């Protein structure tokens, strides 16, 4: 076998295997180029999750017509010139291979007008095609800036296409990539459009207050309201940003962002240092959220570790690790007493005191969570009628995901056994049977709507297919269901689609509820002379609410409980802390006997 020199196309396709993994990889490289070009506004248009089209338009300084062809060549860049430049990288890109790699696996058009061009001059477009990647340049009217269009990603490498995920999945990766670049570039405004619709707008931040608002819009307003501000410096190192309070945690790494000299990175040294600072403050399996910026001399960090530039190497990794761990620890400890791991284990013991039969114990006993797995908003643990504020104890901080502001609002609670909301009160605990309270409230609301013939409905995003034979449903039966707020459509001999349900029915497995009640009524219809009456159907549905209760720990109970005077409800009881385990066990025993 003879040695041959690879064609430019094949060489670039091999290089693309390291740089272009999926559409979001393309987006990352092009967004970073736009930021490096001094853009203040960047618009990202994608179609079909980026597989059909990725277009990035910026208002940066642009590229001269004479350099357009060179920009598509491999190992061509304006960001470094000498070997010494690699020792202190100050730009996001520098390898000079992104455009060449992308153009080898997609149809890429590079259009630009340089800021040095006259107002009445035109811009230019360049396309590299063929085995030799020959560049064709044509005039294109456009304002100053650059437009990069990438169409039909992996059209010439079918094997790579097989590894792409669903359109929605690829879009989510693209949005996450844009978030990271936006968090690193507060001076730039970003717009994201998917299939022609604007899905995200991120205004530029010119002040500290706008920067905070931007963090909230990108990460989460709940994170921002629960975050601690960090700013620490030593020698040539500075760490600043936002950390989640120990009471505000999640079960995934989604809301964790670390930037080194403005570059989003994934680094074991940094992650370990942060975990070490939190290790005694979080329940097992839970992790914090944070947006942190590390600044240091460019000469002391090597970003030329991997083609994707996600990884970095520090000249003194131990110093960086210890500095970050101490800075985060000091920030957390400065917030007063917090609940430590030993106390969390005691709370978990209480949680295990009441576990319904056939109930699988979950590890998410601590807080209901919002959005990307993050706990709910926090308020100070001070009642409006308190004359004097006081320092919170550790156990009070444990319950601090909700704060009472007056009657009818949710207090600081934890969810135990997927049923009981518990919060500290005076010298004991306030325990709300949220399942019983919800069932009673929902039943009353449904009866009221049914009686007034005004049932508010909510459409299901994806209709549920119910495994019920169509011939078991009579027109009268479907009509009765419709009167109660359920929109049923026969879609086949063995299939019925559920398209709408009563808006007031929440926290249940709606598919199983509807399917089983349908089955029960269909069975009754075959043994009785008449169709199950409307009143009988109402009774069966109310009973099924309790049977198919489905707790959702991601669902905030605030919106549900806030309008109601739940503290005066018979489902709310006061229990001494030392009697809680016994009270829950007694509750379990009485309910099993009643059942």
Automatic annotation (TrEMBL):
Entry keyword annotation includes tRNA-binding: no
GO CC annotation terms, alphabetical: mismatch repair complex
Annotated protein name in UniProt: DNA mismatch repair protein MutL
Record GO terms (molecular function): ATP binding; ATP hydrolysis activity; ATP-dependent DNA damage sensor activity; mismatched DNA binding
Keywords: DNA damage, DNA repair
Entry-linked HAMAP family: DNA_mis_repair
Residues spanning the signal sequence: none
Family: Belongs to the DNA mismatch repair MutL/HexB family.
Residue stretches making up the DNA mismatch repair protein S5 domain: 215-333
Stored InterPro entries: DNA_mismatch_repair_CS, DNA_mismatch_repair_MutL, DNA_mismatch_S5_2-like, HATPase_C_sf, MutL/Mlh/PMS, MutL/Mlh/Pms-like, MutL_C, MutL_C_regsub
Gene3D superfamilies: 3.30.230.10, Histidine kinase-like ATPase, C-terminal domain, MutL, C-terminal domain, regulatory subdomain
Cited Pfam families: DNA_mis_repair (PF01119), HATPase_c_3 (PF13589), MutL_C (PF08676)
SMART domains referenced in this protein's UniProt entry, alphabetically: DNA_mis_repair
A GO BP annotation: mismatch repair
Function according to Swiss-Prot or TrEMBL: This protein is involved in the repair of mismatches in DNA. It is required for dam-dependent methyl-directed DNA mismatch repair. May act as a 'molecular matchmaker', a protein that promotes the formation of a stable complex between two or more DNA-binding proteins in an ATP-dependent manner without itself being part of a final effector complex.
Domain of life according to the entry: Bacteria
The keyword Nucleotidyltransferase appears for this protein: no
Organism, scientific name: Kangiella geojedonensis
